Amino acid sequence: MQILSLNVARIAPLVVNGKQTLSAIRKRPVDGAVDVGPLGLTGDEQADPRYHGGQAKAVYAYPAEHYAFWQTVRAQAQVADWNSPLPFGSMGENLSIEGLLENDAWIGDVLVFPDCELAISEPRYPCSKFNAVMGFNKATKMMVQSGWCGFYLAVRQAGTLSAGQRFEVRPGPREVSIAEVFRAKKPKG
Q1: Can you give the residue ranges of the MOSC domain (predicted)?
Q2: Which residues are paired to 49 by β-bridges?
Q3: Edge-to-edge strand order for the sheet containing 59-63?
Q4: Which of 31, 50, 111, 137 is the most buried (most CB within 10 A)?
């Protein structure tokens, strides 16, 4: 299991359903080590702290294994070329990870990095901003139907993270997985 890309964004205008709003969903990869504190990565912002950020949702991780699906559906929706790769960070994630999917991610499990520890706290529930960055209005619904939501992480031990770092999972109580919590809440799509 490893971080394939480390991504951050500043708050910027985003047009959602014809109206301008502020968002930091358009994450972009960064090089080198980035400090991680109790509220997330240095250089990353959240426009609406009611739904994003805070100690329980300091960092957002998304499995890179789902990227081929999103590239395909964007091409089918005719908002991208079939051969255009979807850059990491496109889901709004801070960590584009490999090797840990929602069914195997349990609330309370801890991702142990060489210099940092992050605890899995809850699934990400998509909103209309996700439709806007994906370029088509069914993206949120497709995330809900697939259950490929990624997950938020709370910082247990501050430190640094960088692309290419490997991590291990230290099991928590293993009572409920991210996939189970996501399905139980049944977010609107």
Answers
A1: 28-170
A2: none
A3: 28-29, 2-8, 95-98, 59-63, 151-157, 116-123, 110-113, 168-170
A4: 111
Model pTM score = 0.94
Measured distance CA(71)–CA(135) in Å, rounded? 11
In contact, 62 and 150? CB cutoff 8 Å: yes
- Distance, in Å, from the CA atom of 142 to the CA atom of 138, rounded to the nearest integer, reads 6
95-98 and 59-63: which strand pairing? Answer: parallel
CB atoms within 10 A of CB 138: 14
Q: At what angle do helices 67-76 and 139-146 cross, to 10 degrees?
A: 140
- Pairwise CA distance, residues 179 & 181, whole Å: 6
